[in-house]
Amino acid sequence: MSHDQTRQAALAYFDTLGTGEADAFVALFSPDAYFEDPVAGPGPALDGHDGLRKFHRGLRRVWQSLRMDVGDVFVRGSRAAVRWRAEGVSASGKAIAFEGINVIAVDDQGRISRLEGFWDVERVMGQMA
Asked: What is the rounded CA–CA span in Å between residue 125 and residue 96?
């Protein structure tokens, strides 16, 4: 996996996340992808395309709009760490802003095989209250 392929896969995630295109979002991932994000709640991570569709549906319920701006992207082989900032409007109409980091692994076909998100979910929930 080249540096550019890894970077492109990571950036495609952020480009697709804020859209309503569930199929395009899920297609970025390998069928057995591991996905862990604070918004998924406590408990096990989401696995595979079914788990990713569940995550995407949840986003549509929680956010009227969501934009994620990518900051630094650090790539090493088939892995990338991406610093980002998100702004959006919650389902209840509140403006929310927060930052985080995602660590992304990409398989030999250029699909995301593992994604771990790190951000302060309590802070975001406090803004939504």
From this structure: 9
Instruction: Domain ranges for the chain, please list them.
Output: 3-128
Residue type, 39: V
For the stretch 4-29, pLDDT in tens is 999 999 999 999 987 778 999 999 99
**Separation CA 22–CA 57 (nearest Å):** 8
Identify the CA nearest to 6 among candidates 72, 109, 78, 92: 78
Helix (H, G, I), strand (E, B) or coil at 79: strand
Q: pTM value?
A: 0.89
CATH of domain 3-128: 3.10.450.50
Mean pLDDT of 39-62: 77
Element (H, E) at 90: strand 79-90
The span from the CA of 17 to the CA of 15, in Å, is 6
